[in-house]
């Protein structure tokens, strides 16, 4: 097989890049090791920054998003038995939209296939070769056969565990990472949300988050130890702990319902530099991971490939190399801004050290400052809805 840009991974990054290249008249093939059903139903992030919404709409992917996405103009912070709203749109003129990552993936797959795009599911990339030549090759397996995809460039959008990052020679990449001393227990429940906007709760027993997926589905999270066993959390215990951490405001209660899905996700920060080597360009979780507190993961992936799409368009259309050469530096400016914001939100809202009264007082002081200082509230709002340029 032969194409111009070979893309490994059919998540939001890989699919959006393929869509952007199509709009510029550039051919691509997307290889995805999982089935179409799996990637279209894999529950992940659900908060889109203003810039991500604008990108989807501008490129013709926003019809269902416009109809079903839930626009939020603020978030709520709960602590010390009080509730405080951060009016993001009032402070910044921008907003967020709740629309699940799996819905973005469905929309992008539908658009690529409708346009005759090549998205190969259950095609596992096993090795990248010739990255330092003008004809890289992606070796992959499909239907029990070994196949090859020859291309001009390779875009590695295959996540943390994919093969792309590992194809870079030793000594080229530098890794920066931090592991947090807690995890998130996430629950998807068939319960109408009892809130109109996301609620971030700081509690002496740990952090909790009340999020939404639809008018009928709630997404909720609890801070738990990093080595927690999901079997130790039957539904009754989950709802009891959610009530303890969230029902701290007089007269308010959450809605309960059947738990459709639950999982435990460790929390970490991870960045690899540079995000490119020779004819390989990396994007999304393949090169950076943030704790989900700041809702940046999918948004960073889309921002990466927006840059990369313009860079490939300049190379093919105008024979310019400057945007491809500068891709990593440009992307990392936003990545590190998001890393800092995600770390800050995580530190402010979670119990970092068990039974540490000093640390608890610092969290409370920071939260109090956020809700009483217009400048600090604006900073939170600007970062949460997404800075237009970094």
UniProtKB/TrEMBL annotation:
Key words of the record: FAD, Flavoprotein, Oxidoreductase
RNA-binding recorded as keyword: no
The EC number(s) this enzyme carries: 1.14.13.2
InterPro entries named in the record: FAD-bd, FAD/NAD-bd_sf, HB_mOase, RIFMO-like
GO molecular function annotation: 4-hydroxybenzoate 3-monooxygenase activity
Residue ranges occupied by any FAD-binding domain in the UniProt entry: 2-341
A Pfam family the protein falls into: FAD_binding_3
Gene3D superfamilies in the cross-refs: D-Amino Acid Oxidase, subunit A, domain 2, FAD/NAD(P)-binding domain
Enzyme class: oxidoreductase
SUPFAM superfamilies: FAD-linked reductases, C-terminal domain (SSF54373), FAD/NAD(P)-binding domain (SSF51905)
Keyword field contains Cell inner membrane: no
Protein name from the UniProt record: 4-hydroxybenzoate 3-monooxygenase
Organism for this UniProt entry: Micromonospora azadirachtae
């Amino acid at each position: 097989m032969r194409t111009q840009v070979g893309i490994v991974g059919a998540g939001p990054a890989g699919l959006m890049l393929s869509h952007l290249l199509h709009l510029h008249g550039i051919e691509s093939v997307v290889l995805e090791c999982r089935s179409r059903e799996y990637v279209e139903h894999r529950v992940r992030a659900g908060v889109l920054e203003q810039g991500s919404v604008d990108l989807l709409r501008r490129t013709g992917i926003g019809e269902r998003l416009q109809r079903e996405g839930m626009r939020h103009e603020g978030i709520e912070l709960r602590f010390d038995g009080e509730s405080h709203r951060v009016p993001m749109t009032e402070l910044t003129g921008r907003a967020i939209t709740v629309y699940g990552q799996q819905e973005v993936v469905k929309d992008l797959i539908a658009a690529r296939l409708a346009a005759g795009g090549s998205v190969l599911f259950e095609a596992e990339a096993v090795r990248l070769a010739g990255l330092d030549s003008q004809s890289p090759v992606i070796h992959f397996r499909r239907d029990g056969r070994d196949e090859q995809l020859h291309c001009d460039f390779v875009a590695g959008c295959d996540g943390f565990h994919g093969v792309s990052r590992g194809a870079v020679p030793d000594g080229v990449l530098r890794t920066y990472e931090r592991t947090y001393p807690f995890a998130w227990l996430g629950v998807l429940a068939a319960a109408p949300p009892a809130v109109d906007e996301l609620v971030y709760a700081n509690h002496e027993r740990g952090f909790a988050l009340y999020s939404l997926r639809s008018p009928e589905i709630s997404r909720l999270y609890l801070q738990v130890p990093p080595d927690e066993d999901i079997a130790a959390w039957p539904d009754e215990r989950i709802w009891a702990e959610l009530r303890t951490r969230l029902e701290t405001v007089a007269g308010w209660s959450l809605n309960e319902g059947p738990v459709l899905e639950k999982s435990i996700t460790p929390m970490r920060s991870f960045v690899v530099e540079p995000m490119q080597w020779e004819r390989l360009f990396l994007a999304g979780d393949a090169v950076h991971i943030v704790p989900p507190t700041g809702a940046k993961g999918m948004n960073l992936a889309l921002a990466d490939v927006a840059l990369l799409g313009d860079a490939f368009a300049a190379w093919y259309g105008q024979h310019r190399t400057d945007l491809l050469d500068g891709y990593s530096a440009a992307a990392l400016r936003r990545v590190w801004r998001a890393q800092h914001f995600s770390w800050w939100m995580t530190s402010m809202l979670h119990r970092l050290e068990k039974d540490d009264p000093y640390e608890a007082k610092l969290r409370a002081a920071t939260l109090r400052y956020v809700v009483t200082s217009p400048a600090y509230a604006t900073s939170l709002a600007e970062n949460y809805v997404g800075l237009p340029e970094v």
